[in-house]
Amino acid sequence: MNNQLSQRICCPHCGHHIHITLDASAGDQDYFEDCAACCNPIHFNMHIDYANSKVELHIDSDDEQIF
Q1: String of DSSP letters for 26-56
Q2: Could you give the angle at the alpha carbon of 39 between the alpha carbons of 36 and 43, nearest 5°?
């Protein structure tokens, strides 16, 4: 599996297109990055499926709350 993956995503806040590079060599990751256009935080959750050689990336906004 290639450890460096490039992807184009949309900001969940403003819809701005962002080019990101994912580093799959560190395994599963859960982190936040600010959008370059609107400066709101974007939540990235990356899961590596080694058995099927796939990377799952879930992107959402930081303003979702659980009650």
Answers
A1: G-SEEEEEE-TTT--EEEEEEEEETTTTEEE
A2: 90
Q: What are the contacts of 21-24 at 24+ separation with CB within 8 A?
A: 22/46, 22/55, 22/57, 24/48, 24/55
Locus of tokens 């949309």? 10
- Tracing tokens 């370059």 back to the chain, one arrives at 36
**Which one, of 67, 66, 46, 49, lies nearest residue 57 by Cα?**
46
Question: Phi then psi for 60, rounded to 5 degrees?
Answer: -150, 175
- Mean pLDDT per 10-residue section of the chain, whose length is 67 residues: 82 94 88 94 92 90 63
Nearest to 22 by CA among 58, 63, 50: 58
Residue type, 8: R
